[in-house]
Each structure stands twice: as C-alpha cells, then as structure tokens.
C-alpha cells in the first residue's frame, strides 16, 4: 500500500492570515526514508508549511497528514517521533547551550547520550556559553545537536545551516547522510543548492504558496532548458539577416548573436533538433551545457508578469 | 557638529516618527488623571462640609499619603488635583521616559538593530543622545498637553502649569537615570530593572518620609521630594524644579561618559561560562527558570515593602491620634478603633496585592515575548501539549505574586503583632491570605489576554489598572459601591470585622476560573507567533 509509505501527505493546503493568502492549495508528498528538498524564494510559504506540519498554525483548508496522524490534533504523539531545526534559532538568553539541548531533548522524551556527546564534539560546540553570547552559527549548532541527538523518525529542517561555516556545513551534510542511512525521513528546506544536490532524493519547489515543480533532480533537469554556446563559421546574408533566421528556428529560444558568437537555450528533450538546425552554420566551437541547479531554480523562482503583485 | 554626535539629527527624526505613537497612551493617562480631578471635584464634593470630611478621612489616611504625598489643601479643586496627581503623574511620566530610553538604547543593542545603525555614519554618542532627547521631548509634550488640558478644564493656570512642570522634570530626571542604567546593565531587561527599581525605591522613600512625622528638611533628601516641595495650588514655588534639572543634566553627562568607555553590546558585568548540562527538564521547570530572577527580586522587594508598611502600621494609632479630625470622623461612623486599624490593614494589603499582580502580569507577558522571539516554537515542536506549557506559566504567574504578598504580609504581621495596636499576628497574616484570591483575578485577566487575544497586549494590564484606579482613586471620586465592586479587592473580607463576609471571594474566584479557562482555550486554538 502506497499510503503507508507516505510520511508527509499534504493535499490542497491553504492558509490565510487575515486577507493575505500565504498558501494557496499546496500539495506535497514525502515518502519514508527520503530526504526531500523543499525549495522556494523568500516569502513563498516554506516556513508557513512547516509550521502547519508542526501544529503551530492551523490549516485554513485542505488535507494534511503526517506519520499517519493529524498534525493539529495529535501534537504530542507526533512530536515524540520528530525533531525540528528552525532557520533562525533563538535561545533563552540566560541559559547555556548545553541546558537548552537537554531541555528540548527531555521534553521530546529523552536523549541518546552517546550521540549527544558525539555531536557536540563533531560540531565543535561549546555548551557552557549562554544563549545571548552565541553567534548565529553557534545558535544554529545548538538546535541541530538538540534535534539530531534524539531518536526520531522524521526530521524537519528549516534552512538548518544558515550561518554555518563551510567546515560545519560539511559536517552537517555528513551527519544528515548518516541519519538517512538509519532510515530517517528528512524534510529539508534550504537555499544552499549544493546541500540540496548532495542530500536530496526528491525536490519540491514552492512559489506563491503552491508547489510549482516536484520530482527527482534528474526529472527536474529534464524539464529545464539546456544552454548552447557556439562560435559559428559562416553567417549567410550577413549578421542581421542570420540573426533573424536563427530567431525564427522554433526549438531555439533566447537567441543572441554577437558577431559570430551565438548563445541560445533549448528544451533538454530537443537538443538533437536544435543541433541539426544549426549544423548549416558550421561550428568553430560548441558547448552544450545541461542546466545548472542555479539556472533551474532561477527559472522557477522568477516571477512571471502579472503575478508580481501577489507576494508580500 | 562634533564627530561623536554625527547623524544625531536624522536619527532623531526617524526615531520620533517611529516612536511618537507609543507615547500617546502615557500622555493620555497623565492628562486624564489631572483633568479628572478638576472636573469631578465640584460634583463629588460640592459643599465645604464635604471637603472638610475629605481632608479628614482620605486626606489623613497614612496609607494614601504613602502613594499621593501629603494633602496640603483639599478645599480647592487645584489643591485636590495636586494631591491626587503630582506624585502619581510624575511616577507615570518617569516610567514612560525610562522605557523610551531603554528601548532606544539597550533593547536596540539586544536586537541587533543598533549594530546596523552604528555601522552607518553615526557618532558614538548619537544613539544615546537621541534616546534621551526623545524621552525628554516626550516629557515636555506631556507637560504641555497636561497643563493646557487641565487649564481648559477649569483649573487656575499657574497651578496647572506648575503641576505639569513637575511631571516634565520628573520625566527628564528618569530619562537620565535610564540612560545610566542602560550603560550598567548588559541587556534591556537588566537595564530597565535597574532604572525601575531606582524609581520605585525613590518613590517609596518619598512616601515613607511624607507619612512619618519627620523634620521638615528630610523632605528635601529625595529628588521626588523636590517635586513635591513646589507645592502647586498652595505656595506655587518654581525654584525646587532647578535641582531636578541639574540632576537630569548631570546623570546624562555621566551616561555619555560611561557609554564612551564601554564596548558595544557589553555592560559592566562580564558574563561567565555556565553549566554544560541542564537540569531543566519540564515546562514547569522552564517557566520557573525563566521567571526565577524576577520572582526572587520581587520577593526581596516585598520584604522591604512589608517592613515599610509594617512600620507604618505600628505607628498608625499615633498617626491618627495626631489627627483628631480623622479619628473623630472614623470613630463617629460607629467604627471602633480596632476596626480602624483593621481597615488600614486592608488598604495596605490590597495595595501590596495590586503591586504583586504587576509581577504576575509581567510573567504572562513574558510568555508572549517568548512566543514572538520564536522560543516557544522549539518547545512546542517537542512532545509538549499546549495546555501544559501554558498552564506551567500560569502556575508561576499566580504563585510569584502570592509569594510576594505573603512575604510582605508576614513582615507586616510580625511588626504589627509585636506593637500594641489591637491586631494580632494571625489577623494580619489571615488578611494577607484573604487578599490572594483578588490578586489571582487581576493576574488571570492577563492570562486571558495572552491566551486568547495577545495582539492587544496592553489589555493584559486592564486588571491591574482597574484595581488600582478603583481601590485607590475610586473613593476619592465617591464612586458608588457597584462601581467600586468591579475591583476584586473590594470583595476582600475584613478579617478583624465582627462577622467577615467571605462569600465575596467565591465570586471573585469564579471570575478567576473564567479568565483562566478563556486563556487556556484560546492558547490551545490559536495560531502561534501571529
């Protein structure tokens, strides 16, 4: 049965704050054992979705199930089985990091002492400093240790590594890799594309309160456009006429011709057609680049006209 | 302009735009306090006999002069206004100034906003100067508004202007006190505690001096005493304002010196490392941990307050004996001298209870602050039910003030019980215990607000403000019993009376339970951090 395998199941989720609609019919599925990348521009609704999953906000409409239960009404039972790292960790100013870790772990129902000690060591965290003394990165580490030291089925990470240095970022990726090997499901909201690329099995992209794209990285790449850069050998009828002719080729888009330098983009599934259409011009050099993760996201993040006024 | 002050003007303009609105309620309250006495006086006390009786009863009550100062002349509306508004109006203005300065200095450093500003073209002293200038400006506006409104309400203009000037000068002094406190405490909470404690101590000291029969020069020993020595409506002396202005200037200079010598974000007390492992493992332990420091300092403050009140209680018979008119009127009303002392105890313990409830409301507002600072989120993301989190905080918010009230009651009981004034140790302690349910009701109002409608945070104070106004100011307005009965403290039984009425506490407690239920239900249902 497929449903039993779904750790997070969201259908048509909406959430309104007064007149502002933060989520407008969001669908999201995360399967057991998956690391699911959750991406989107600022203000798209990532944190709102996560807060609904944590039972901190009440859904205005739609269906939300997590670990087979309702995140709003079955809070305690669910929260024993999950751990959460917020993107902007705020610690109690007078409490040390060590005290905060122990408090959060105790409230969740216990801590794995060996793992706690190991994580404090690996993240080079000084647990004797007070909340107000920690830098942003160190506050983040406190929350990461507190979450990862517990034995849970699901980790909800909301931009967990913001403020970490590259060394600690590497440790984090290593640790999440180990967690995943234990079969833990992870919902990872992040802006750090290399992190997502390294960890995520599947990715969902949210914009303006809706999922606009969901799939494996390869599937997402398949939908995106490949870029072509070439230096052509001859331009029949001169530069301007050639430019007009190239722009008229149906598979090519974003055509720019500067002297003999040509750049264009093409649907990744139609590269062969594009190259055949260009062979007549002859190539002095040719680069066909698969879409980078950056260009992939940029194409999804960019707000198309008419929608620009919708976001806050 | 000196480099230390670069950027002061644009920052001041921007800050004023931002903060101007937050001053309005303070200005409104002080103005209302002042004009209400002028407007109400002719109706509440129409005849000379009424006025003489007012002077003999409320005007001679030592518990009231602790708050209001001595009543010099209650036979005119202006004299009545001076008695009611001078000390209290100054106190409120001082609070406004303190909070404005701390917000613009320490609170900004805590939140990181100041770092953004300090990285701009801004002199080292500019932020402090802006903070003090803004609070001073607000105090001046408050004075002008209060003076004009009071004058238009029918007061003598010279009396109204001098009275309002004492508000302004008190505001200026405590803006400077707060500026110094902001350099000493290394975070906003410590800084405002230092400044408010200074204000409270000076206020209490002034009240104590006014109440006891001390030599005249002693009244000049405190800054708030100077304000009182202007004696609006009787002698109208302006010159005692001058030492107040001098103190404001001096402390501002000290604050600027201190600021010039300290590191950004640091205070005089360096932080030390703490424990690597935690013992706080439940929501109740967390609530206690977060409220521990304020509860302990409140309790110490209540022991002190108790000793002041206790001292007052031991001399209450001699104080009243020195005022035959008061004793006459009170005794003439078929009141035995023992009962007179009894109702005096009720007043001071109610007063103690209202002050204690302030601590309870603060604990509840801390829950909201924790929520808005995203610190409730990680706690509720663990296996914690919302009602148990909220309930733990309610427990502390009710227990803290109860502890304070009982400590003060105990100290008063010890002192009153050993002096020969006709009440026993047990009577006083029982009276303190009987006052506790009223404290819970007032605190429970804030539970309901924080639980159900935290967006209107200011409403959390309604209980305290209403109780204070009705219990202390209500009788000066000659309000009818049903109106006075809105305050839960009106229902506190007089345990020394022949047959104390205990049933009032049942009604009061029903309201408490209602407020708690609203708060719990609201907190369970609403979106967090909105």
Give descriptors for this structure:
heterodimer, A: 312 residues, alpha/beta, Rossmann fold, Alpha-Beta Plaits, 2 domains, six-stranded mixed beta sheet, four-stranded antiparallel beta sheet, 13 strands, 29% strand, elongated, B: 530 residues, mainly alpha, 73% helix, globular, membrane (chain B), transmembrane helix (chain B), transmembrane (chain B), Multidrug ABC transporter permease (chain B)
Shape of chain A: elongated
Low-confidence stretches of chain A: 305-312
Q: How far apart lie the N and C ends of chain B?
A: 43 Å
Task: Report the count of strand segments of chain B.
Answer: 0
Helix content of chain A: 25-40%
- Determine the structural class of chain B based on helices, strands and strand pairing: mainly alpha
* Helix-strand category of chain A: alpha/beta
Mean pLDDT of chain B: 88
Give the count of helical stretches of chain B.
21
User: Helicity of chain B, in percent?
Assistant: over 70%
Order of helices and strands of chain A: EEEHEHEHHHEHEHEEHEHEEHEH
CATH topology of the largest domain in chain A: Rossmann fold
CATH superfamily of the largest domain in chain A: P-loop containing nucleotide triphosphate hydrolases
**So how many helices of chain A?**
11
CATH architecture of the largest domain in chain A: 3-Layer(aba) Sandwich
- Strand proportion of chain A, as a percent range, falls in 25-35%
* Largest interface: pair, residues per side: A-B, 45 and 37 residues
On the 0 to 100 scale, the average pLDDT of chain A is: 87
Let me know the largest β-sheet of chain B: none
CATH C-level of the largest domain in chain A: Alpha Beta
What's the story with the biggest beta sheet of chain A? Answer: 6 strands, mixed
């Amino acid at each position: 049965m497929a449903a039993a395998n779904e750790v997070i199941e969201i259908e048509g989720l909406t959430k309104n704050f007064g007149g502002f609609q933060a989520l407008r019919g969001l669908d999201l599925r995360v399967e057991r054992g998956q690391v699911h990348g959750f991406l989107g521009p600022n203000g798209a609704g990532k944190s709102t979705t996560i807060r609904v999953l944590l039972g901190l906000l009440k859904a205005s409409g739609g269906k939300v199930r997590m670990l087979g239960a309702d995140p709003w009404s079955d809070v305690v039972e669910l929260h024993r089985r999950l751990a959460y790292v917020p993107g902007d960790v705020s610690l109690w100013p007078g409490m040390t990091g060590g005290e905060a870790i122990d408090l959060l772990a105790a409230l969740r129902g216990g801590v794995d002492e060996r793992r706690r000690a190991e994580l404090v060591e690996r993240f080079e965290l000084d647990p004797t400093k007070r909340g107000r003394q920690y830098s942003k990165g160190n506050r983040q580490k406190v929350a990461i240790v507190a979450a990862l030291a517990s034995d849970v089925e699901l980790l909800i990470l909301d931009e967990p590594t913001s403020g970490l240095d590259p060394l600690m970022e590497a440790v984090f990726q290593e640790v999440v890799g180990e967690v995943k090997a234990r079969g833990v499901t992870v919902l990872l909201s992040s802006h750090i594309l290399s992190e997502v690329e390294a960890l995520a099995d599947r990715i969902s992209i949210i914009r303006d309160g809706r999922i606009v794209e969901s799939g494996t990285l390869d599937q997402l790449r398949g939908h995106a456009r490949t870029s072509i850069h070439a230096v052509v050998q001859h331009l029949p009828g001169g530069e301007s006429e050639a430019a007009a002719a190239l722009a008229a080729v149906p598979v090519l888009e974003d055509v720019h011709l500067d002297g003999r330098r040509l750049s264009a983009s093409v649907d990744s599934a139609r590269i062969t057609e594009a190259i055949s259409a260009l062979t007549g011009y002859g190539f002095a050099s040719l680069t066909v680049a698969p879409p980078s993760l950056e260009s992939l996201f940029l194409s999804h993040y960019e707000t198309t006209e008419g929608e620009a006024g919708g976001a806050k | 302009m000196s480099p230390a002050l670069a950027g002061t003007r644009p920052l001041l303009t921007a800050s004023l735009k931002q903060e101007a609105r937050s001053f309005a309620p303070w200005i409104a309250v002080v103005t209302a306090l002042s004009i209400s006495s002028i407007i109400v006086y002719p109706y509440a006390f129409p005849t000379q006999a009424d006025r003489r009786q007012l002077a003999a009863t409320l005007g001679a009550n030592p518990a009231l002069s602790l708050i209001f100062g001595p009543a010099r002349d209650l036979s005119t509306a202006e004299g009545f206004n001076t008695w009611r508004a001078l000390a209290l109006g100054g106190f409120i203005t001082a609070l406004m100034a303190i909070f404005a300065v701390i917000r613009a200095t320490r609170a900004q450093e805590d939140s990181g906003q100041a770092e953004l500003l300090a990285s701009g073209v801004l002199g080292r002293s500019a932020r402090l100067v802006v903070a003090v200038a803004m609070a001073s400006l607000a105090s001046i506006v408050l004075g002008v508004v209060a003076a004009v409104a009071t004058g238009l309400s029918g007061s003598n203009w010279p009396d109204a202007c001098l009275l309002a000037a004492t508000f302004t000068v008190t505001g200026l002094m405590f803006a400077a006190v707060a500026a110094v406190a902001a350099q000493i405490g290394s975070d906003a909470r410590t800084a405002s505690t230092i400044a408010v404690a200074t204000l409270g101590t000076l206020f209490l000291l002034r009240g104590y001096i006014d109440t006891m029969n001390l030599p005249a020069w002693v009244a000049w020993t405190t800054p708030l005493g100077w304000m009182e020595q202007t004696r609006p409506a009787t002698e109208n002396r302006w010159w005692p304002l001058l030492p107040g202005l001098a103190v404001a200037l001096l402390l501002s200079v000290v604050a600027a010196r201190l600021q010039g010598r300290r590191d950004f974000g640091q205070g005089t007390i360096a932080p030390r490392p703490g424990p690597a492992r935690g013992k706080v493992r439940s929501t109740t332990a967390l609530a206690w941990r977060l409220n521990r420091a304020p509860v302990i300092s409140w309790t110490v403050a209540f022991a002190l307050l108790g000793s002041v009140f206790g001292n007052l209680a031991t001399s209450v018979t001699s104080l009243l004996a020195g005022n035959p008119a008061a004793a006459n009127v009170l005794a003439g009303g078929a009141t035995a001298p023992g009962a007179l002392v009894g109702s005096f105890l009720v007043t001071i313990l109610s007063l103690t209870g209202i002050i204690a409830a302030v601590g309870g409301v603060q604990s509840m507002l801390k829950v909201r602050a924790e929520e808005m600072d995203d610190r409730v989120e990680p706690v509720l993301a663990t296996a914690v039910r919302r009602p148990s989190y909220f309930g733990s905080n309610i427990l502390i918010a009710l227990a803290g003030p109860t502890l304070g009230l009982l400590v003060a009651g105990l100290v008063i009981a010890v002192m009153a019980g050993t002096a020969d004034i006709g009440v026993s140790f047990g009577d006083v302690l029982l009276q303190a215990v009987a006052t506790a349910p009223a404290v819970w009701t007032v605190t429970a109002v804030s539970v309901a607000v924080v639980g159900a409608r935290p967006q209107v945070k200011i409403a959390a104070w309604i209980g305290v403000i209403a109780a204070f106004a009705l219990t202390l100011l209500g009788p000066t307005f000659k309000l009818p019993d049903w109106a006075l009965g809105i305050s839960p403290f009106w229902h506190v039984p007089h345990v020394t009376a022949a047959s104390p009425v205990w049933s009032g506490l049942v009604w009061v407690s029903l309201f408490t339970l209602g407020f708690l239920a609203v708060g719990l239900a609201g907190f369970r249902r609403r979106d967090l951090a909105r």
